[in-house]
Structure formats: structure tokens, C-alpha cells
Ni/Fe-hydrogenase, b-type cytochrome subunit
Amino acid sequence: MSNKVPHSRDYIFTPVIRICHWLRALSIVLLVISGFYISWPFLVQYGGPDNLMQGWVRFGHLVAGFLLVAITIIRAYLYFFSKSDIERRSFRDVISPKKWIENLLAYGYMGNMHKSGVYGPLQYMTYFALTLVIVVMCVTGLILHAHVYHEGLGGAFMPIAEALIPMFGTLAFVRELHHFLTWVFVIFMVIHVYMAVFSGIRFKHNSVDSIVSGYDYHPMKHK
Ligand code: HEM
């Protein structure tokens, strides 16, 4: 059965936003895997031959970690100063109780959702909360780095790390927080992929593909 509805083709994500999205996804996957391995190095037996396995995993973790720090800075800059205001515009819906109700009802198949920008209010707040967790991971990661490698960048960061530790209590708690918050990413990734697919089906648009091609398609007439 064919269902012909005219669609508009809208350019929503610039190349730099898409590249940042996929580099961030890659870095987070690498960080979760290597991070859990650092805390439980199960591949080499205790007291076994020293093949520097742990050293390579730590190296990979740091490369992915600094990539995440760089992307977080670039994305913060783009949020505020990008020529396209499609992300910033979404904030209007966050401060409107009417839009929140419309958003939550629409997820339950009750009515439709008309967004001011690219994200709905629930989606916006979820990404904002995740960004805060990423910032905490970057700061705690850099504090740990300063205490593992005392030379180079690690050493340069040491005075700032020393000043920040009292805010967390102890260095041990910095490590625990860095470890526990890793689960936020594991849970987020599952829900994020589910919601991306769900939203494409529910609102009949190009949800997942738009972060690859940059284009979204919207029905010009709602059925
Ligand atoms: C999504 C982001 C991140 C995740 C999920 C993550 C995860 C983890 C986990 C699970 C550990 C092991 C903690 C333990 O010992 O129990 C760890 C350790 C560590 N992480 Fe991260 N991390 C992230 C970001 C970063 C960043 C941005 C940096 C720094 C640039 C970083 C630097 C470190 C360092 C230095 C260690 C300690 C390594 C060692 O013991 O030699 N991490 N990370």
C-alpha cells in the first residue's frame, strides 16, 4: 500500500556537528571499554609476564579522553556561536510548560509535537545533563591523569588538579566518581539509540539518517 505525502527536505546538521557526533560516539565507546578494563585488567594473569597490556590500554584511554575533551570544547563553542541557531532555538521549548506537556503526550501517541528548534524539551534536557556528566568525566579524568603521569600535560595540570580535589573530597573519591559515572554512558547509549529509532518511526521523519547525511525530511501534511 503506498502512502504519498509530500515532504520538505531540511538541512539541519552541518558537517562539523556530524563529525563531532561520531567522533564523540567513538571516543565514548573506547573510553567505556578501556576504562572498565583499566579497573579490572582480566586479560593478563596477576604476576604473569609483563607484556605492557595495561600500558597500551591506558594509552588508548588517554587518546580517546583527550579527543573527548577537545570535542566537548568545540561543541560548547558551536552551541553558542554557530551561525545556525537551530540548537539554541530549542531552548525556547525548555522554558515553556505547554511544550513539555505537548512533548510528553506526543511520545505517548497523543497529538503532535511542534519544535522551535531541532530538539524537543525532554531531549534537550537529557543532552544537557549528559554534557554535565561529560564535563565531570573530563575534569576527573584530567585529575587522575595528573596523578598518574607527572610530566608533560599531566604535570602542567597538577596545580589545577590539586586545587580541584578538595571539591570532591579525596583523590580516591575522584576515581570512584569517574568509575561510577561510566555507567551513565552505558545506560545512555542504549536509550539514545532506541529513542533515535523510535522518534523516526513515531514522527515519520529522518531521525537516525540526519546525523549521517545532515538532512531531515518532514511530512508537509500531517495525516
Ligand atoms: C566518557 C568518558 C570516560 C569514561 C567512561 C571513562 C572511564 C574510566 C574508567 C571506568 C576508569 C577506571 C577507573 C578505576 O580505576 O576504577 C578510568 C580511568 C582513568 N581515566 Fe577515564 N573515562 C572517561 C574519560 C576520561 C578522560 C576525558 C580522561 C582524561 C583526559 C580520562 C583519564 C583517565 C585516567 C588517567 C584514568 C586512570 C588510569 C590509570 O589508572 O592509569 N578518562 N576511566
Q: What stands out?
A: Residues 11-215 form a domain with the Fumarate Reductase Cytochrome B subunit fold (CATH 1.20.950.20). The chain has a mean pLDDT of 94. The CA atoms of residues 146 and 153 lie 8 Å apart.
